[in-house]
Amino acid sequence: YDKQKRVSAVSLANSSGEGSKLVPRVFGWDHKFAQLCMFSVRYIQKRDRGKVDWYMDCALLIVGAAVMGVIVGPTTKDSMVDTGPLLLNHLMIVLVFGTLSTISSLATFSQSKLMFWRESSQDVSIFSIWLSRNVTDLVFVLLQTLAFVGIVYDMTKPLMPIKIYYYIYVAVGFSNSGMGYFLSTFIPRRNLTLYSALISILVGAFFSGTLPYLFELHEAIIKGTDNIAAVKLAITEISYTRWAVESLVVTEIMLAPPGIISTYGAGTFEQSGFACLPKLYTNETDDSYSNPFARTTKDFLYPDMDARQIGQPLLRNLWPLFWI
User: What would the pLDDT profile of 150-177 be if each residue is shown by its tens digit?
Assistant: First the structure.
């Protein structure tokens, strides 16, 4: 074996004369798949070594869920017919979960920047590194969401089934973990947690379609009373809270028993701008007693009947959370 190695070394030295060049090796998809498996195993081992930190993240989520459950309280008829508290309650819960999900995902890429730069300079598949960590983290996102939703749902008792409630918050966790990945690529590590929490709260609170209402932004654009309303609306379109709160509110109202909640629910849609078309109705109010959700009110937006269907708000509003 040693003799063969010496012969190979001599042959390589003789062939490295002037004008000869080494042909770069081209790796195929099988090699990239092998890298994906290797990086997945390596990252799983890393998460196993840091399981105590993940337990702390879960404990913080559980505490946040309990605090929100105490503040919001069980769902009642009074809370369903009052637009302000209804939207703000959902907004607060989404903000807490979204911010904590962002913070818990920061370590996925921020702690391995030096290793990533070193390995990527040696033709290591960047896509394999990215995919291995995303797929592995997805399991932790599902478990963290389950812990948070289990407590909030039990304490607030919303009208929608827990399965739908869980789906919505899985989409929020997916969106905000991606936000954490993105922020960790350019924010300095010593300020990463503070800046990420601040960005998550500011974007989530003030561009949620709740503060101000989505209706007010559309009205300002249509009437031309606010020059930056279009900018605010554009930021709202990429805000995780805008889609999550609308999905929660519309689904909750559409699943409510018919009666007074339906009448007030139509008013909630008009006042907030959720499940509405971006077009102002200027004729006289046309009440629809048989179907309150089809009502058209003067100086409010047209109702979007495609969105005001059971199950449809879930499908329409969760897709943006995944591409965000």
Answer: 999 999 999 888 999 999 999 999 999 9
Cα 205 from Cα 212, distance rounded (Å): 10
CA distance 188 to 110: 9
- Which amino acid belongs to residue 203? V
Place of tokens 């030096």: 114
Q: What is the pLDDT of residues 7-66, one digit of tens each?
A: 454 454 555 544 455 455 555 656 778 888 888 999 999 989 989 999 999 999 999 999
Q: Residues 172, 101: contact at Cβ < 8 Å?
A: yes
Average pLDDT of the residues in 130-136:
91
**Cβ-contact 57, 99 below 8 angstroms:** no
Closest CA to 272 of 308, 238, 306, 310: 308
Nearest Cα neighbor of 250 from 212, 307, 318, 295 is 307
- Confirm if 272 and 213 have CB atoms less than 8 A apart: yes
Residue (of 109, 112, 106) closest to 194 by Cα position: 106
Q: According to the 3-state scheme, what is the secondary structure of the chain?
A: CHHHHHHHHHHHHHCCCCCCCCCCCCCCHHHHHHHHHHHHHHHHHHHHHCHHHHHHHHHHHHHHHHHHHHHHCCCCHHHHHCHHHHHHHHHHHHHHHHHHHHHHCCHHHHCCHHHHHHHHCCCCCHHHHHHHHHHHHHHHHHHHHHHHHHHHHHHHCCCCCHHHHHHHHHHHHHHHHHHHHHHCCCCCHHHHHHHHHHHHHHHHHHCCCECCEHHHHHHHHHHCCCCCHHHHHHHHHCCHHHHHHHHHHHHHHHCCCCCHHHHHHHHHHHHHCCCEEEEEECCCCECCCCCHHHCECCCEEEECCCCCCCCHHHHHHHHHHHHC
d(CA 248, CA 170): 13
Residue 79 and residue 85 in contact, taking contact as beta carbons nearer than 8 Å = yes
Alpha carbon distance 57, 103 (integer Å): 9
pLDDT of amino acid 5: 45
